[in-house]
Design a protein that fits this description.
Layout lengths: L2 H5 L7 E6 L3 H10 L5 E7 L3 H10 L7 E3 L3 H9 L3 E4 L12 E4 L4 H13 L3 E4 L2 H17 L4 E2 L5 H14 L4 E7 L4 E4 L4 E4 L2 E4 L4 H4 L6 H11 L8 H13 L3 E2 L8 E2 L4 H4 L14 E10 L9 E6 L3 H9 L10 E6 L9 H10 L12 E7 L22 E7 L11 H4 L3 E2 L14 E2 L5 H12 L1
Length: 461
């Protein structure tokens, strides 16, 4: 695709964006946008205004370029004089002249508030916070469409990139057997020392050499053996289910089971493994979304957080040639792997913002449907009055809960409550191990925009 040709008609135009959330994603966007001629992000909002200011400084702006504003009028005056504006209060953005709001707080309640306010103020919305998107994404898309606006996921993160890869493959007429992503961190095998490491922690696995090579027959058995040997490490994370849940709502793909298979696989093995059992893979049927844990040596290319599709090799001679050119193809020649091994955070996010504002199209699906929900199941006994507090901020894990990806259902009293509606709330009753948390089990917050929008979404269905 020639992006110069696509956007040349808008030469001289500048899209203005407001960024809410100056974390890793937001900071990387600010660093890149200074080099993106058609996009400007003159407004940065974060509860920690010093962090927002530091992000602008890191992007190459000077102290003199930055104004910390406390009102709309002060913000507009600063913008008119060419300054960068830093805000603590996201509600001020409603009256500031920007075209799109980039929501990147990572906080589902804050994201719901910002998303609703942006669309109500007539601004396009780029929803980086998948936590909120997994709960109310279809509702935000519905509201945007009704108002002639765009609500979009963003390139730079896996949902948008996988939706794009999938649509590209299908436009070409490729038959997609499975799709998904690699987990965020690789599992690195050191044969000399007999260790496997994950996020810098190495464990000795003396017999791992026995399962390093994938046999042509016995794929499920080898996958199971690898999983057992590496069970000390996490093999599934909440963000993986969250991101793929968003993709399900933008596509026709569904998970094979509620927690994914999450095999440990080398990149070249993916077309052998992520295909139906009838083809000696591990999936129950074609059209499946899943996650794999990339297994590699230290001197091999990372797949950390990359996205992929496995396709049928219907034209065997073509795929034989592609195999010779380095495209991973199963040993029986039936399935091939097409993948993007990286996601570049804010470096590539400008494409989604420009597409939404200039082309009137986001980088998600044209029609977003409520097809799945992330739910929470207890892995220990819980007591009434306890709070479902996050114990691992990086992965949004709550010790004593596991995440599930279930068929969509209204978040009614006796139905599963979406994970990010439950997390942080207080239990209304005792809950035994192995129970899927429902709405009736939670003390509802006094007021929550996230809960309000979800109820409206369920009512619209």
């Amino acid at each position: 695709m020639n992006y110069d040709a696509i956007f040349s008609q808008f030469e001289g135009s500048t899209v203005r964006a407001a960024l809410v959330g100056a974390g890793q994603f937001g900071t990387s966007l600010l660093g890149q946008v200074k080099r993106t001629t058609m996009l400007d992000v003159p407004v940065v909002c974060d509860l920690d205004v010093e962090r927002a200011k530091d992000s602008l400084l890191a992007a190459g702006y000077s102290e003199d370029d930055i104004v910390i504003a406390e009102s709309t009028s002060e913000s507009v005056t600063a913008l008119e004089s060419g300054k960068r504006v830093v805000l603590a209060d996201a509600s001020l953005i409603d009256e500031i002249p920007v075209d799109i709001v980039v929501e990147a707080t990572g906080n589902p309640e804050a994201a719901a508030q910002v998303g609703l306010a942006a669309l109500s103020a007539g601004k396009h919305l780029a929803m980086v916070s998948k936590e909120a998107d997994s709960v109310i994404g279809p509702e935000l898309a519905r509201r945007a469409h009704r108002s002639g606006l765009v609500s979009t996921p963003v390139d730079g993160d896996q949902p948008s990139l996988l939706i794009g890869l999938l649509s590209w493959a299908r436009l070409l007429g490729l038959k997609v057997v499975s799709a998904g992503k690699s987990s965020e961190y690789d599992f690195i095998y050191d044969r000399v020392h007999g260790t496997v490491s994950w996020r810098g922690e190495a464990i000795v696995v003396p017999d791992f050499a026995d399962v390093w090579l994938m046999p042509e027959f016995g794929v499920p058995e080898t996958i199971e053996a690898r999983s057992e040997m590496l069970q000390r490490f996490p093999q599934r994370t909440v963000p993986d289910l969250c991101e793929m849940g968003v993709v399900c709502n933008h596509t026709d793909l569904l998970p094979d089971n509620s927690t994914f298979h999450a095999p440990h696989a080398r990149t070249l093995e993916v077309p052998e493994i992520m295909r139906p059992k009838t083809e000696r893979g591990i999936l129950g049927a074609p059209g499946t979304i899943d996650v794999f844990n990339c297994l590699r040596r230290a001197d091999e290319q990372s797949f950390a957080g990359g996205v992929y599709v496995v396709v049928d090799c219907l034209d065997r001679e073509t795929w034989r040639v592609l195999d010779e050119k380095g495209i991973p193809v199963s040993r029986d020649g039936k399935h091939g792997l097409l993948y993007n091994p990286s996601h570049l955070l804010g470096v590539e996010a400008p494409l989604s913002l420009l597409s939404a504002c200039l082309l009137g199209r986001g980088t998600g699906a044209a029609d977003v449907a409520h097809r799945v929900d992330i739910a929470a199941r207890t892995t220990r006994n819980w007591s009434a009055g306890q709070q479902l507090a996050i114990t691992d901020q990086h992965h949004h894990e709550v010790s004593g809960l596991e995440a599930l990806l279930l068929p969509a259902a209204p978040a009614a009293a006796d139905n599963p409550l979406p994970y990010y509606m439950a997390v942080g709330q207080t239990l209304a009753q005792n809950i035994p191990t192995g129970t899927v948390i429902t709405r009736a089990m939670i003390q509802a917050p006094t007021y929550s925009v996230l809960w309000k929008l979800r109820d409206e979404m369920d009512g619209a269905a």
